[in-house]
Amino acid sequence: MEIVKDGEVKGVALPFHHRIRRSDGSIRYLFSQPEFKHNKSGDIIGVYGVTHDITDRHIAEQEKEKLTNDIFQRNKNLEQFAYIISHNLRSPVANIIGFAEELIDENYSHEERNIFLMEILSSVRRLDEVIHDLNNILHLEKGQEEREEVFLSQLIYTIKTSIINLLNKENVVINTNFNDVKTIYTSKSYIYSVFQNLIVNSIKYKMPGVNPIIEINSKKHDGKIFISIKDNGEGIDLKKHGHNVFGLYKRFHPDIEGKGIGLFMAKSQIESLGGKITLLSAPKQGTEFIIELPDTKNTN
C-alpha cells in the first residue's frame, strides 16, 4: 500500500517476514501485513495490521528444503557409484577375463603361465580394494554414528602415535592450539578418520626438500566450531581442480601414489556429522582445510 500526497510518496506499507524470541528462549516466525491509518488530509497518523504465526509452515519449508537437498546429493552419489561400477570395476574384471583366457591356452610356457597368474592375482586385489572402498562409502549412508566427548589434544596424540614411523621418516612437525575449543561432542571414529586422512595427505603431498609443518587450531564462533588444518605442502590448483577436489577417485598429483578417495570420505563423514569442510590452497603455497561443526554440546 502506498500513500501519495501532493505528488510525494508519504509512506509504503509492505508485508514482511520477521521472527521473535520469547522469554523462554524459543523462536517464533511471523508474517505481518500492515496498513496505514491516515487523516482526511492524507497524512499518516498510525499503522495497524494483522500478524500471523507461521512457525509451523516455516519449519515445514525448511524440512522440505533439506529433504530436497538430501535427494539431490543422493542422486549425485548415485552418479558417482555408476561411474565406479562402469570404470573402476570393469577394468580389473576385464583383466581377469583376459589373463584367464590366456592361461588356459596350452601353447604358453610354464613361466608365461605364472606371469598370467600373477596378473590375475593383482587384478583380484585391485577389485577387492574397490569393493572395500564401496563398502566404506555405503557405511556412511546408514546413519549417524554414536557421539561422545572427544578431547582434541588426545585425538591428535593418538593419530601421531599410530603414524610415528611416518612422522620420523619425513621429519614432520605438528603444532596445535586448542585453547579456544578443547573438546567436541561428535563421532570419535568419524573425526579420527577425517583428521588422520588430512594429516597423512599433508605429509604425502609435502613440498620436495621441505620438512612438513602442520598447524591445527580450533575456535568457536556464532554457535559453531571451526577446526583448521594447515600445511606447507605442494598445494592444489583450485582454479583447475576446485570444482571436483572432493570428488570420488579424483587425484591432483599423478606422480604421487594414491587412490583418490581420502577427501571424498572426509567430506562425507563431516557432512554426516552435520558440518561442512572447505579448503584454501594454491600451487606451492600449501593447503588449509577448514572443518565447520555444529556446537551440539558445550563440553569445553
Annotation keywords:
alpha+beta; 3-stranded antiparallel β-sheet; 12 strands; 43% helix; 27% strand; disordered N terminus
In short:
With 300 residues, the chain is an alpha+beta fold.
Word description of this protein:
With about 300 residues, the protein is an alpha+beta fold. It is built from seven helices and twelve strands. Strands 7-9-10-12-11 form a five-stranded mixed sheet, covered by helices on one side. The model is unreliable at about 1-5 (pLDDT under 50).
**Radius of gyration, taken over Cα atoms and rounded to an integer in Å:** 29 Å
Structural category is alpha+beta
Strand content bin: 25-35%
**Mean pLDDT across all amino acids:** 81
Shape: elongated
- Residue share in helices? 40-55%
Write down how many β-strands occur, each being a DSSP E stretch of 2 or more residues.
12
Q: Pick out the low-confidence regions.
A: 1-5
Order of helices and strands: EEEEEHHEHHEEHEEHHEE
Q: Major β-sheet, in short?
A: 5 strands, mixed
Q: Which strand order does the major sheet show?
A: 7-9-10-12-11
Q: Count up the helices.
A: 7
Please report the distance between the alpha carbons of the first and last residues: 52 Å
Topology, please?
Layout lengths: L1 E4 L2 E5 L3 E6 L5 E12 L5 E10 L1 H49 L6 H31 L7 E4 H11 L1 H7 L2 E5 L5 E4 L1 H17 L8 E9 L2 E8 L6 H4 L20 H11 L3 E6 L5 E8 L6
Parallel strand pairs: 7-9
Antiparallel strand pairs: 1-2, 3-4, 4-5, 6-8, 9-10, 10-12, 11-12
